[in-house]
Amino acid sequence: MSSDAGQDSLPDPDVGKGIQYWASQPASYDGVLGGFGNGSLPRVDALGSRQLLMHLLPELCTVPSAVRPLHVPEDLANRRTRALDVGAGVGRVTADVLLHLFSDVVLVEPVDIFVNQALRRGKASEDPSSADKAYLPANGATEINDLEVVPWKGIADKSKSVTFIQATLQDFDPAHPAAVPEKAKVLGRVGYIPPVDDLDSKFDVVWCQWCLGALNDADLVAFFRRSKAALRDPARGLIVVKENTCSEEGFPRAVFDESDSSLTRSDLAWKECFTNAGLKLIYEQTQGGFPEHLYPVKMYALR
Ligand code: SAH
């Protein structure tokens, strides 16, 4: 069936088929980026994401710079900051974006080989003197993006932490990540260990990148609502959606991709889901610098 023959007849993503597809891909940047892991894309992507976060939450910038406010309120300056990375793959966004700006990251990913690869890299980062091999993908990928072999920031010195959870977004509640152990399995934590368990302490930013197409509209809206309820400070926290957008002509539209059983939504289709979830669009921007023939990638910041 033609994917957009009629929007009413679009199939819903099938969670099992999606996971099966991803489980057949290499556990590497190239695998999670559909073959774009070894060029400039990972670097351009991470830079665009970090710039967006520093623009919207300048207090996250911890080194002297033009974006850092001169006076950060003490309660903001002295607390640990927390980010959630969902549909996180092998931990690319955690490593190259979030650990540069936040104290504690919780990484959620359903596919065994991906979440275990992320955990392996996190553990290897605790001891950066361990063999370089420890950073390489387990399943023998030969071409490695150089970003993939850098130890994760703040893990060896235990100033930062990453907690690894295996779950689908359909099953995951960001406000209570470990509430249902059969559905969301906590696999481990690397780096900083807090004196009191902090897993239920909500987030400053929920980052969703290249994974929300695995959810149908109802599941997506429900996930957004749970994410909104998991923002620590409802007036400052942000949900960031960084996703492909398909074309449209004045109406919301989506394209179904058989290969990974996912939906690519148009700009208006994303915005319809945001509105239905009670989210307010704070900022939107198209990621520049990606190859022209790819779907345009948009970043939406919401709360
Ligand atoms: N966000 C990461 C990975 C993108 S690849 C990055 O930008 O590098 C897409 C990811 O979505 C894969 O890791 C895949 O396993 C994950 N995914 C697929 N179905 C999912 C679901 N139902 N819930 C959560 N994640 C899912």
TrEMBL record:
Its EC number is 2.1.1.244. It is an enzyme of class 2 (transferase). Keywords: Methyltransferase, S-adenosyl-L-methionine, Transferase. One of its GO terms (biological process) is methylation. One of its GO terms (cellular component) is cytoplasm. GO terms for molecular function: N-terminal protein N-methyltransferase activity. S-adenosyl-L-methionine binds at G87, R92, L169, Q170, Q209. It catalyses: N-terminal L-prolyl-L-prolyl-L-lysyl-[protein] + 2 S-adenosyl-L-methionine = N-terminal N,N-dimethyl-L-prolyl-L-prolyl-L-lysyl-[protein] + 2 S-adenosyl-L-homocysteine + 2 H(+); N-terminal L-alanyl-L-prolyl-L-lysyl-[protein] + 3 S-adenosyl-L-methionine = N-terminal N,N,N-trimethyl-L-alanyl-L-prolyl-L-lysyl-[protein] + 3 S-adenosyl-L-homocysteine + 3 H(+); N-terminal L-seryl-L-prolyl-L-lysyl-[protein] + 3 S-adenosyl-L-methionine = N-terminal N,N,N-trimethyl-L-seryl-L-prolyl-L-lysyl-[protein] + 3 S-adenosyl-L-homocysteine + 3 H(+). It comes from the Eukaryota. InterPro entries: MeTrfase_NTM1 (IPR008576), SAM-dependent_MTases_sf (IPR029063). Belongs to the methyltransferase superfamily. NTM1 family. This is Alpha N-terminal protein methyltransferase 1. It comes from Lentinus brumalis.
